[in-house]
Design brief:
The protein is an all-alpha fold. It has five helices and no strands. The protein is elongated and about 55 Å long.
């Protein structure tokens, strides 16, 4: 069976949502030089904020990607919109953190709408598969 006949046609939007997410992930690079295996700087608060923004994205990205994909199997347009919200929020989160003031990371708090939204849709998919819905 061809996967293109199984997936809804609007699943393409999900792929277009995941691509900028991958670019976001790649852009959160390090702009300072530290010797390995040092993760944080004793002198550069801004570096530590950049590193923490990157680390937090690494911690959340795999779960988001799984829930995004599961939700998109049944709700591709909703998952794409929620994914776009999450991806843009990660930029807001990182840019706020990059200022050196960790409190400004909260500029990206709206991303919880996208994150919890795809989790909710994934639970809905699971319940549908189990015949509860």
């Amino acid at each position: 069976m061809d996967v293109l006949t199984v997936l809804p046609s609007s699943f393409g939007y999900v792929i277009f949502t995941s691509t900028p997410a991958w670019l976001m992930y790649c852009m959160f690079d390090l702009r300072f030089t530290l010797q390995y295996p040092t993760m944080y700087s004793d002198k550069e608060q801004v570096f530590n904020c950049i590193q923490r923004a990157h680390q937090n994205t690494l911690e959340v990205y795999p779960q988001w990607l799984v829930f995004q994909t599961i939700a998109a199997l049944v709700y591709p347009l909703s998952a794409s919109v929620l994914g776009a919200i999450w991806v843009t929020s990660r930029f807001s989160y990182a840019w706020g953190y990059y200022t050196g003031d960790p409190a400004k990371r909260m500029n990206g708090a709206y991303g919880y709408i996208g994150y919890f939204g795809v989790i909710f849709l994934s639970i809905s998919v699971a319940l549908q598969l189990l015949g509860v819905f």
